[in-house]
Automatic annotation (TrEMBL):
Record Gene3D superfamilies: Lipoprotein localisation LolA/LolB/LppX
Protein name: DUF2092 domain-containing protein
Source organism of this protein record: Bradyrhizobium diversitatis
Keywords: Signal
Signal peptide: 1-27
Keyword Signal attributed: yes
Amino acid sequence: MRSTTLRKILPGMGTALLLAATSSAHADDPAKILKSMTDYLAGQKTMSASFDSDIEIITPELQKIQFASSGEIKMSRPDKLRVRRTGGYADVELVYDGKLISIYGNNAKSYVQADAPGTIDKMIDALQARSGTGMPGADLLLSNAFDELMATVIEGKHIGQGVVDGVECEHLAFRTPDTDWQIWIEAGAKPVPHKYVITSKTLAGAPQYTLRIKDWKTDALNADVFAFVAPAGATKVDLEGAAIAEFDELPPGTPTGAKK
């Protein structure tokens, strides 16, 4: 009798405990947690980190294919940035010194340059507007990241805690009319993002973009880090040239009609 009673009671207790834990997690304000992250990042003079990214495409035959790459980011606010991305199809680097933006494609052995005086924010906007090129997690680097991230959000939830690369994080989920996105933010005094996932809701198959960020550092960076020196033998091309194409996370052989 006692054994039978325990078998009936224990599953119910587990469910009650799970619901209690979930309710507690949901009680935290996701916008407040996100704001602590964006304020922390915006308040850092210098930052560096490494990343791994995965981007999915849906072919015209409705097959889902994923492409992976890795890289590193170094920045000094308000006007210096260096990003390198290496994948199976590209090895490309962007260098911005506050006046000039340089993008070098190692595979193409070519680079492009353009005047872009101002800030990192303005440079990112100008680059995306002119070439349609995006950068991994660029919205997380902006000085007004919170406003940009929340601009079209219609719902936000604090899912609970999670562990990314061994780091305990707060797991948040947000919805917009076109996408669902999630972010895992380190718990404690250093609220940096460790994982960022964007899911498209407007395409069949719901392709995702996943970014994992690690090795966060706020140490001072030498000014030479943000000086571009063209490698020997590199050819300078127009802004629409090969180096720009290489910066896209999709390889040149992506099936025609594929959507990401």
